[in-house]
């Protein structure tokens, strides 16, 4: 029977039937597995695909930004925990959604527009702030882009801008909303207030020994020592080994003679320029140049402000015409040369002449270089010798004495901040060395800690001071101060509540303040965010705005003072929102509508993700 089925499957009728079965099964959803997402397609929005190349490029950009914050490029699992892949996919799917809609509307971008976008891209600007073809090629190569990919991406961006500008460019916040926001942000109040101090209350009684002991028992977690580990440390690095070297005078002189040409500072010139876009300006400057008129006089007469190009060496200037003209002039001179938008005048403000340093000026740099050169040839041999001595259980002090290296001592806590005693240890390595110190055991051979740049650190664990509860005798003064401060604060808060109750009962703040020798102050008008002079901070302002005219209350402000206040005036905004604030609100409104619009389009089109391909791509490039 099976032979009969195999034979039928090989016949034309069998193949046709198989095709119909495949199509029929696909109709029940198997198409998502067979024909929907290829191995190079990580996601699809409608008919628009997101391939592995564009995903990886966007992912690398996001991962680099995260790496600047955490100090290392996140692995695939770390990135997943941080939500990087999801954020990248959402960003790319947003673009793909708009690309799909743009295609439906048959939107396009002309070559002239692409050329304009290219010229305006600051990534490709040279010294003069204008487009440089060489920089364009260099940036694309370093970023892994082809020219075709760059222009495709800019074209897609331009088409998306056409969509968003046409749909949302005129969107504004409703006037009712802006009115409410204006009222919230710019309404002002004025108040009378007094600040309570220790003179406003009776001095709290000093705590007894029993009260001190009870407070310490209740807050014992606040009075504990940190575990510390006493260590002797040995640092072997190029810098530490170089510091042990002595360089002979004849070597210094010979090195100076050999390298003084490379130590010479090249001539640099402070340059500025003005563009001459009209024939009248060009004629004016050409006439002035022929007549020997000073550049400053010409720009003053023309009402122009020159652009400062900086102080540059000739090799720093990418524009050949500018370099040749600027370095052919005398100080104070100017020349008229061609530019992209027309003629321009180049002015040499100041010339810093070529300068060769003296032997004494170059001595420290030469000694450092020669010492490092010696250290570089010896460091591997010294490293092997130290490792052999450590394997023989030689103490750090003896090893350091043998090689002329310093020994550093520190009581190290878990955060490792005390490791700042090591001058050649970077702060980002403190935590790593501290972890090794806290993982070590006394009377055990402790391996070296390798660091970057062929550097190593060894240490001997001398003593361990365990974390412990501090006794009352150790912290008596601190505990007593804490109790007195607590009682004082509680008394001030109780006094403020008492005063508020009296004000609500009809007494005046002036009368109450007179009793306390705390005379009321009249505040400047303030908004919900505080006053311009800073005397009314945000916390106090929020309390004052919690009620209407005549509102009384008390609050602890941001500096810890207890303030009792009474609102004496409320003022509604008399002018509309400033143009900049209104523009910002309208921008936020457009951004919100845009996000909802794109999300709805994406939901309609459907976002399909090849999660397996994404995981595989990230593990291959960033590790598990």
Automatic annotation (TrEMBL):
This is SurA N-terminal domain-containing protein. Residues 247-364 form the PpiC domain. The keyword Cell membrane applies. InterPro entries: PPIase_PpiC, PpiD_chaperone, Trigger_fact/SurA_dom_sf. One of its GO terms (cellular component) is plasma membrane. It is a single-pass type II membrane protein. PANTHER family: PEPTIDYL-PROLYL CIS-TRANS ISOMERASE D, PERIPLASMIC CHAPERONE PPID. Keywords: Cell membrane, Chaperone, Membrane, Transmembrane, Transmembrane helix. It comes from Devosia ureilytica. SUPFAM superfamilies: Triger factor/SurA peptide-binding domain-like. Pfam families: Rotamase_2 (PF13145), SurA_N_3 (PF13624). It is found in: Cell membrane. The keyword Nucleus does not apply. Belongs to the PpiD chaperone family. Its main location: membrane. One of its GO terms (molecular function) is peptidyl-prolyl cis-trans isomerase activity. It comes from the Bacteria.
